[in-house]
Amino acid sequence: MAHVDRQAWDVVVVGAGGAGLRAAIEAREAGMRTAVICKSLFGKAHTVMAEGGIAASMGNANEHDNWQVHFRDTMRGGKFLNQWRMAELHAREAPDRVWELETWGALFDRTADGRISQRNFGGHEYPRLAHVGDRTGLELIRTLQQKIVSLQQEDEKEFGAYDARLKVFQECTVTRVLTESKSGSAAGSGRVSGAFCYERESGRFFVLEAPAVVLATGGIGKSFKVTSNSWEYTGDGHALALLAGAPLINMEFVQFHPTGMVWPPSVKGILVTESVRGDGGVLRNSDGKRFMFDYVPDVFKEKYAETEEEGDRWYEDPESNRRPPELLPRDEVARAINSEVKAGRGSPHGGVYLDVSTRMPAEVIIRRLPSMHHQFKELADVDITAEPMEVGPTCHYVMGGVDVDPDTAAAHGVPGLFAAGEVAGGMHGSNRLGGNSLSDLLVFGRRAGLHAAEYAASLAERPAPDPLQIDAAEAEALRPFSAEDTEDTGEAAGGDRVPAENPYALHQELQQAMNDLVGIIRKESEMFEALKRLADLRVRARRAGVEGHRQYNPGWHLSLDLRNMLLVSECVARAALEREESRGGHTRDDHPAMDRHWRKINLVCELADPQGDSRAADPALGQIRLSRRETPPIRRDLLELFEKDELAKYLTDEELSR
Ligand code: FAD
Q1: How many CA atoms lie within 13 A of 363 on its CB side?
Q2: 593: left (phi over 0), alpha (psi -120 to 50) or beta
Q3: What are phi and psi of 177, to 5 degrees?
Q4: DSSP assignment, residue 9?
Q5: Which sequence ranges form a coiled-coil region, renumbered to this chain (predicted)?
Q6: ipTM associated with this complex
Q7: Which residue among 82, 157, 573, 591 has its CA within the 20 to 30 Å range from the CA of 555?
Q8: What span, in angstroms and rounded, lies between the C-alpha atoms of 17 and 421?
């Protein structure tokens, strides 16, 4: 067995975004020695990029708001496919998590009378997003980091070392969650025993031993060509869970945010926050028409304005008017923009126009949307106080993820594995409402940390990492350095030497395939084609090769990430092919209607061959096995929060009569 450095911890948290940091704080406060590991610099995570705000029914801007209304909006946004218990816990606990941040030093924007200000967002009945301008995520991460520093200062006083009970490993990547081997083979599916990691700068391998691992690795956007996600988001946590033996659910639901930048090409996909519409921005096509009025679906008709005048009045008088359709949930707006562009009514660069310049004075725009003003000026030479922006859909968020227990965030199937934040599935159903991610991170990050700590403390004996697994993880990580020598098992079988594949070219092909074939509008024939291309890419990715050495070698890092993106992409494509209806972030051209019989069905993805990776080399075989599972019936008191007429749009007659 190779020599790999090992360190023992009680809880290892993979990811230092909002979910990871909140989990780490909780685990450390429960007395556990906690390690946090993150792929990029500490503080650089998607959470820090969050702009619009954090959803919590504090009732500051409208006293009628409460957790029940927030729960209702979340279920409507997710088209009732949400794990309802998660949606309930989230709505109940979000206000406490926001208050808690203020006790740790956060300072949200204020109303005139000194309360936390709350802004409108799509799908939220009342203004509900606590915010700090359009840089809310920055304040959230800054506060959580500050809390971590204060805990480390306590440890320095008590133990003489800042990282005695809470240590951050930055610019380090986890490639495998280790488990206790059941059979003595390299693929165990027993209890968690730690994580196999490499340091990006030096290429050094190390193992963090721990009985509990919390996955908080965020999203999968880098599998798509046009995305708001940054380089780290290669679906690592999703793949780590699968490889350790934990299933994923709802992977067909991928959110395409309606408003990403479309020009210039170098910035295509970068997010334009929903706050622009929340604060009064409107969408127009090339004829100057506010087209969203033509796209209000039946399920939302009663709640949205029918005329521009009514929509505009709503900003001043929300009690007597209905909201403008620019504030429909994201899936509806993204599809509408897609249709306008397809119908030839798009902007010169293939988007539509988003305008605040005619809606607010310049100084208000600069005060309320400083990042957007800066972003467009710097990146596109557009002054949003004087001219409209060009925007179009961009892959933004994955609703699917690790199948977790709602209360404890424990992953099914692998004792000691927990997941929180974007990597966990269920909470948002088929479509997430804006602002519901930041609150999700805090609510379930805390729960994951708490239960991981309880689990670790409850063990009489710590599971030992399996040496065979460590060896296998090391060999897997080193494979890109000897890719040329790898024997092809495909068409050129027979021991021929085949050239290595360029990881960047493979990545581009993958992104193009996912964008074109499993994107915002899906068709059966295209998804079959996607699965074929993914299978081919998977075989070629086993020969992804790099030159040079292990010291800071981004090509090597990408070669390793490809495994994860391919696994996750197959989950998305297989589940999207299976679900023959359109709902939230899954639109089928060939099955355009929402089907009530599909509502309670979760598609579960598992590794087809958990004992090895033999299938990965064979293009004829998929790596993912799909099964169906029903969501438990929604609790009666929660159902009673809705009118029966509304429920009839989502639930089958049989469910209703029950
Ligand atoms: P992240 O914050 O994404 O952090 C993931 C962490 O995991 C990172 O530290 C990363 O380095 C680490 N990691 C990943 N893989 C590995 C690995 N293999 N090994 C080690 N570490 C790893 N949501 C809202 O609610 N409101 C908003 O206003 C909002 N605005 C947004 C704006 C933008 C531009 C984007 C991209 C997203 C926005 N979202 C918003 C969504 C929200 O920010 C994310 O869903 C959320 O931050 C995810 O948080 P997380 O803690 O799950 O993961």
Answers
A1: 0
A2: beta
A3: -90, 130
A4: -
A5: none
A6: 0.99
A7: 573
A8: 9
Active site includes 3? no
Q: Is the CB of 151 under 6 A from ligand 1?
A: no
Cα separation, 421 vs 442, whole angstroms: 8
Closest CA to 414 of 180, 570, 624: 180
Q: What angle do CA 158, 160, 165 make, to 5 degrees?
A: 70
Is residue 228 lining ligand 1, measured as CB closer than 6 Å?
A: yes
232 touches ligand 1 (CB under 6 Å):
yes
Alpha helices in 160-253 (DSSP H): 236-244
What is the DSSP secondary-structure string of 381-406?
A: ---TTTSPEEEEEEEEEE--EE-B-T
Q: Which atom of ligand 1 has the smallest separation from the CA of 44?
A: 9
Q: Is the CB of 271 under 6 A from ligand 1?
A: yes
Question: Which atom belonging to ligand 1 lies closest to the Cα atom of 440?
Answer: 25
Confidence (pLDDT) at 613: 62
d(CA 430, CA 441): 18
Residue 383 CB neighbours (<10 A): 13
pTM, whole model, 2 decimals? 0.93
Cα angle: 183, vertex 184, 187; to 5 degrees? 80
CA-closest candidate to residue 28, choices 223, 162, 129: 162
Residue nearest to atom 28 of ligand 1 (CA): 52
Q: Is 16's C-beta closer than 6 angstroms to any atom of ligand 1?
A: yes
> Could you tell me what percent of the chain has a pLDDT over 90?
87
114: left (phi over 0), alpha (psi -120 to 50) or beta: left
Q: Is 94 in the pocket of ligand 1 (CB under 6 A)?
A: no
The closest of 371, 375, 421 to 398, measured between CA atoms, is 421
How many whole angstroms separate alpha carbon 572 and alpha carbon 563? 15
Residue nearest ligand 1's atom 46 by CA: 47
In the structure encoding, which two tokens stand for residue 485, read together? 């020598």
For tokens 């805090």, what's the residue? 442
Q: What three-state secondary structure class fits 11?
A: strand
Ligand 1 atom closest to the Cα of residue 131 is: 28
Q: Which residue type occupies 517?
A: L
SS3 of 192, please?
A: strand
What residues have CB less than 8 Å from 251, skipping those under 6 apart? 238, 398, 400, 401, 425, 568, 571, 572, 574, 575, 603, 605
Q: How many CB atoms lie under 10 A from the CB of residue 587?
A: 20
pLDDT of residue 612: 63
User: 213: which strand partners?
Assistant: 12, 417
Please state, in angstroms and as integers, the Cα–Cα distance from residue 447 to each residue in 216, 418, 454, 642, following that order. 12, 10, 10, 28
Q: Name the phi and psi angles at 252, rounded to 5.
A: -70, -15
Query: Which parts of the chain have pLDDT scores under 50?
Result: 184-188, 490-492
Please name the helix (run of DSSP H) or strand (run of DSSP E) that holds residue 119, with its range, or none: strand 118-119
Q: What is the pLDDT of residue 543?
A: 93
Looking at the CA of residue 216, tell me the nearest atom of ligand 1. Answer: 52
Give the integer Cα–Cα distance in Å for 51 and 435.
9
pLDDT of residue 185: 46
Measured CA to CA, the distance from residue 268 to residue 262 in angstroms comes to 5
381: left (phi over 0), alpha (psi -120 to 50) or beta: left
Q: Give the Å distance between the CA of 477 and the centre of ligand 1.
A: 25
pLDDT of residue 344: 95
Give yes or no for residue 422 CB within 6 A of ligand 1.
yes
DSSP 600-650: TEEEEEEES-TT-SGGGG-TTS-SEEEEEEEPPPPPHHHHTTS-HHHHHHH
pLDDT value of residue 227: 96
